[in-house]
Design goal:
The N and C termini lie far apart (109 Å). The protein folds into three domains: 49 residues, no CATH class; 29 residues; 39 residues, no CATH class. It is built from four helices and no strands. It is elongated and about 115 Å long. By secondary structure, the chain is mainly alpha-helical.
Length: 127
Amino acid sequence: MVGRPQEGWAAWANSVAVQTVVGVFAVVTLPWVARGLAALHLAIGRLLFSPRTTSSLSEKIHTLDIASHAAAAAETGALRRLERDVHDGPVEKHVTSIFSKLNLAPAHDDHRRVLAVLTFLGASPRL
């Protein structure tokens, strides 16, 4: 038969008796084990979510939030200064230099950029 050791009926009966005793013991002690594990689970939960832990985490989050806003404000200011410096100075000088190299006089009533492209490509503008 499957599951029975080869020593005989006495060994098999002894094995069944031991397994039965262990099973009955497990069933009888199950309520106390379950209560103990539930109490352990509750204690771990209270430890993890205690006001001491959450208040220190809230303070850290608040500090990091302030630091993040300060860094964002500083970067915004630096970006605005960079945009102002790039748009106001060097770009205008470069564009004026290109127009003067192409012999296009400064005028506000024509399309100087279109004339610059046509002159660069070698076409004659027809206006």
